[in-house]
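Handover notes (outgoing to incoming on-call)

Open items:
1. Uridine phosphorylase 1: sequence verified, structure written out, both below. Nothing else pending on this one.
2. Nothing else urgent.
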Amino acid sequence: MSAFAKYVASELGLGQSGEDHPNICTGTDRFVMFKVGPVLSVSHGMGVPSMAIMLHEVLKLLYHARCSGVTAIRLGTSGGIGLEPGSVVITRQAVDACFKPEFEQLVLGKRVVRGTDLDAGLAQELLQCSADLGEFPTVMGNTMCTLDFYEGQGRLDGALCSYTEQDKQEYLRAAHAAGVRNIEMESSVLAAMCSACGLPAAVVCVTLLDRLRGDQVSSPHDLLAKFEQRPQRLVVHFIKKRLAGA
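Uridine phosphorylase 1 structure tokens:
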């Protein structure tokens, strides 16, 4: 997030080149936050619980700061399904491990289910921004949000595994048939909470591997670093277009 803040500052012409920006959440180790002009760059940790904590606290902060016209975008990495490594996926819907567009949570011991649709207009804007850049393959598709990195995503290389390679392939191909193009661990709670609060939100993730071909990332580190910059480039281009039209 620090690197993204520096990149935003550079692209928007804010501050000196390479200038460090202070972590304005330095009193806590739950997450870090950097403010660069109109952009908040916040880490959210790994998985739904960590993302939910950050969202509750940042959404309250935005409310009390009387912010308006806020757009939330998650940037990150993911495992692709049927895509070349380095492809960027803009999420249409976040779906659960059964491919349903739902986020389920127990509240006071009762099952609460919220929808996980993301802002369609925002997703189309982002897709157009990628077309403007013309630098890397970008698709729009569903993102499967799981509660676990290993068994929850059908990996064969965890400490526990009760299924076969054939079982995994059948599951991933069923996911692809249901419109799923990548897998990660945060999108569903982001979609559900932002939708409940009336906040436009999007998820933009690069794929580091094609899960149909294996469970391990095999690309060299320098190439992975370039892949990880792709969502940042796309979203900064989006920010610049939005600000130019304001």
